[in-house]
Design goal:
By secondary structure, this protein is α/β, with parallel strands linked by helices. It contains 12 helices and 10 strands.
């Protein structure tokens, strides 16, 4: 394991678990994190990947060839999770996050896990300043299913005798207390619960964790795991004057999926363009492809007429050719 030369910088550990399908998204998550972290902080990023193509691995490393971040690649054997539940919209790689405490250098007492469909628009080192106070995780309340009783696996929580009004967290961001995980053998307990409840959990890893870490969490403010669909609502109620000072989570359809209705698609496109994942011509081709594929979904929803849709497409293509940003 190669670590950067020791400096006066503060070192933090972050982790992502990703398959080849989400390689670009994971790279953009870490790229946005590196761009917005405090300049006195050095990020050690642990990347647990399954099935990366050589091309995507090269693009990934090229995007993250930045000062202030060091990438530690580890291969993820998804066969380890063959007996665990996997939600239809995820992949077995989603369970990889439970292995992160076991691959981090012993000098770290905490690792911050991030889903690969996030944009980090704030200094994540602030999260490391929040004490665990004896707890195992730092989490944010799920903005869709806010309590155990309103989650899609509420009957399972009832069987375990858990209070239905207790907060339900989203596992897209996890501040992991490494010492606690090792001390309490939480990985083994995770596998035991997953096998026992196979076929009965809606959100697979997220539901297992909500069972395993009931009353063992530090609750973070919502801006650290802010679903993109709720951004406007958050902005209307927030007193934060700094604008996009949060972590955006593109739950549901990803911003480059033609079915996406996220109001923050353009922000994701801007980071993709800036990162250099695509060459200039590749980026234009990719964006045009997404735009064209969006047409039938836009018409189906009835947002605009066919004539208006053609007009928007012509305007968007013109702006793309000129190098301007397009939502």
């Amino acid at each position: 394991m190669s670590f950067p030369e020791k400096t006066n910088k503060r070192h933090i550990a972050v982790g992502v678990c990703v398959d080849n399908r989400m390689a670009m998204h994971a790279a953009i998550t870490l790229y946005s994190l590196a761009k917005n972290v405090h300049p006195d902080v050095h990020v050690n990023a642990y990347v647990l990947s399954a099935g990366f193509t050589e091309e995507n691995r090269q693009r990934f490393d090229s995007v993250l060839d930045l000062d202030g971040i060091t990438i530690h690649h580890r291969n993820l054997d998804t066969g380890l999770f063959s007996e665990l539940p996997v939600a239809s919209w995820t992949s077995p790689a989603t369970h990889g996050r439970i292995l992160l405490p076991g691959i981090v250098d012993e000098s770290f007492g905490e690792i911050l896990y991030l889903d690969s469909d996030m944009l980090v628009l704030c200094d994540v080192s602030r999260i490391f300043d929040i004490p665990f106070e004896g707890n195992c995780l730092k989490v944010c309340q799920d903005l869709k299913y806010r309590t155990l009783g309103t989650s899609r696996s509420s009957s399972v929580y009832d069987e375990f005798g858990l209070y239905p009004g207790h907060k339900y967290f989203n596992s897209g961001l996890l501040g992991i207390n490494i010492d606690a995980w090792r001390r309490e053998d939480l990985v083994s307990r995770y596998f035991e619960l997953g096998k026992k409840l196979h076929g009965r959990l809606s959100h697979s890893d997220q539901d297992i964790m909500n069972l395993l870490f009931y009353r063992k969490c530090v609750w973070l403010p919502p801006e650290y795991n802010l679903f993109s669909r709720y951004y406007k609502e958050y902005r209307n109620t927030s007193t934060n004057p700094d604008g996009y000072t949060c972590i955006i989570h593109y739950t549901g359809f990803k911003p480059d999926d033609p079915r996406s209705t996220s109001p923050l698609r353009g922000l994701f496109y801007n980071y993709v363009k800036e990162s250099g994942w695509f060459s200039r011509s590749e980026y234009r081709k990719w964006r045009i492809t997404v735009l064209v594929k969006r047409i039938p979904y836009t018409l189906r929803r009835g947002f605009v007429s066919k004539k208006k849709c053609k007009s928007i497409l012509r305007y968007s293509l013109k702006r793309l050719r000129s190098g301007a940003a397009v939502r």
